[in-house]
Write a structure and sequence with these properties.
Length: about 525
């Protein structure tokens, strides 16, 4: 019998139509068919009742139909609305075009949401995937533990990076079960934004190689002081009255007995992050053989506009950001950056500096590593400034260009935008969803065999043909535009390599030499808990 059965006319006395039924190895799952088919809140992992911090177990197979017809709970978090969520939250959402079968073998795109590792979710009411589903792909979004439950780092008691382990458990579930929903389990693309992008990068460089074949990294790389040294959480908690003077194991026992909402609220100001625990994440990246992986990578042209939205004190941000990235920073170092970035427009200068230190230069160094390890790379710069620039519209940010998270309004049908897209916005939606899904299908945003005449060819990025696709009102290919600023940062890192923290990407080139230099990315995440 076909593993995926669509029940189209099973009408009850009340007139309700039963949705599609999938029969994966995990057990029968009943979904909904609307504009597209959705299976909502399918559990992939089980939190252990005796310790909400411990590693999750695979969810037992369903013996009866699982009703995947309602938005599931989100994981515990403190967001703009206050405390929300429940601890038993390890679920995923599967979206497919209507009327497909197990023979369809559609490419699968698995999205990891952002939110600074402290908030966010992958539910339908947050990330409607309509634009992507229209391109004949399957989209899967996941919920994973956040904040102290997902990223408390205490390796001495066996607790670290639990949110990342949740994500990996979800990827294993998808790999084993997605064929029953019409997906191609040999063609899975992992993508994410901000903290989600950092998560994707971690799975690329540390996880099993067989769970996905391609990645899309939107504004976030692993080489960052956001990846904590293990001492940071301990220092924070030891300074909290509730935990002072407890032994490690008494301390852990105390945490497990605390009310979930109380603990999330108590620790809401602390930036729990992935950490170098010596096991799941080590000081050096584990995966060097990337020749079978394809990477689509980029960021917005004015990423840090959001960072300066509530201040006019642009000058102090140089000091703040540099001291987060380096130890032993001198006043002369700070002055050198102010001089290099000075054009006479204080805000624009600060935004350019912040974008380079937190996004553009870390991305540059990551790309070097991917290329040195034989990955296929396509690179973009998002600069479109329209009516669906998500963070600018949501936070009423003034300034030209695109800031952090703005492209999400053109990938997802976000509930913030009620009216139909304008003609210009629709053109960008059509472009970005086409090249994203082309990459998922073929490993190339503009494959020759499927080339639409309206799309400019997107060349692979390498050290010789270093072309970048700019996504503005129109898409166009440009030669690498940042030679001067990258040379400046290369020299600064060369002179300060003993003063940085974070993951080491060895075996990469800088100025045609091979160096092992500590690196960084998304420094702003250290200070701001809400990123998308």
């Amino acid at each position: 019998m076909c593993a995926l059965i669509y029940v189209l006319l099973c009408v009850t006395a009340c007139g309700a139509v039963r949705g599609p039924l999938a029969r994966p190895a995990a057990g029968p799952v009943r979904g909904l068919a609307r504009d597209f088919t959705m299976f909502l809140g399918v559990p992939y992992g089980k939190i252990q009742e005796d310790n909400y911090f411990s590693e999750a177990l695979p969810y037992p197979a369903f013996t009866e139909e699982f009703q995947a017809t309602e938005n599931p709970v989100i994981c515990p978090q403190h967001n703009r609305r206050g405390f929300e969520g429940e601890i038993h939250c390890l679920n995923l959402n599967i979206y497919t075009p209507n009327n497909i079968t197990t023979n369809s073998k559609l490419p699968v795109m698995v999205y990891i949401h952002g939110g600074g590792f402290t908030e966010g979710d992958g539910n339908l009411n947050s990330l409607p995937p309509t634009f992507l589903i229209n391109k004949d792909v399957i989209v899967v979004t996941i919920n994973y533990r956040l904040g102290i439950y997902g990223f408390l780092c205490l390796p001495q008691v066996g607790i670290s990076n639990q949110g990342l382990k949740d994500q990996q458990l979800a990827l294993k579930w998808i790999k084993s079960n997605i064929a029953a929903f019409g997906g191609d389990d040999s063609n899975i693309t992992l993508f994410g934004h901000s903290a989600g992008s950092i998560s994707v990068d971690i799975h690329l460089l540390y996880g099993p190689n067989d769970l996905f074949s391609k990645v899309i990294l939107q504004s976030g790389q692993i080489i960052s002081p956001i990846v904590n040294q293990v001492v940071s959480d301990e220092e924070f908690l030891r300074g909290t009255d509730s935990f002072r003077n407890l032994s490690d194991y008494d301390w852990m026992n105390h945490l497990t007995q605390m009310n979930v909402s109380e603990l999330i609220t108590l620790t809401k100001e602390h930036a729990f992050r992935p950490c170098i625990d010596g096991n799941f994440i080590t000081k050096y990246a584990k995966n060097y053989a990337l020749k079978d992986k394809s990477v689509l990578i980029g960021n917005a042209n004015k990423e840090m506009l959001f960072f300066y939205k509530d201040t006019n004190d642009y000058i102090s941000k140089y000091d703040q950001l540099l001291k987060m990235a380096f130890t032993g920073i001198e006043s002369t170092d700070i002055e050198s950056f102010k001089t290099f970035y000075s054009t006479g427009n204080t805000k624009d200068d600060a935004v350019r500096f912040g974008t380079d230190i937190a996004f553009s230069y870390p991305l540059e160094r990551s790309v070097r590593y991917y290329l040195d390890n034989r990955a296929t790379v396509f690179r973009y710069l998002f600069s479109y400034d329209g009516e669906r620039n998500y963070v600018k519209i949501r936070d009423n940010i003034i300034g030209e260009g695109a800031t952090h998270g703005d492209e999400l309004g053109y990938l997802f049908q976000l509930p913030l935008f009620f009216k139909p897209p304008s003609e210009n916005d629709m053109r960008v939606i059509e472009y970005i969803t086409t090249v994203w899904t082309n990459f998922a299908k073929y490993g190339d945003p503009t494959p020759t065999m499927k080339q639409e005449s309206s799309l400019p060819s997107w060349p692979k990025y390498d050290k010789i043909n270093n072309y970048i696709m700019t996504i503005g009102s129109n898409a166009s290919v440009v030669k690498y535009p940042w030679l001067k600023s990258v040379a400046f940062w290369d020299e600064f890192y060369k002179n300060h390599e003993g003063h940085t923290i974070g993951i080491r990407l060895n075996n990469y080139s800088m100025n045609n030499a091979r160096n092992n230099v500590l690196s960084y990315s998304l420094i702003v995440l250290v200070t701001i808990n809400v990123l998308f």
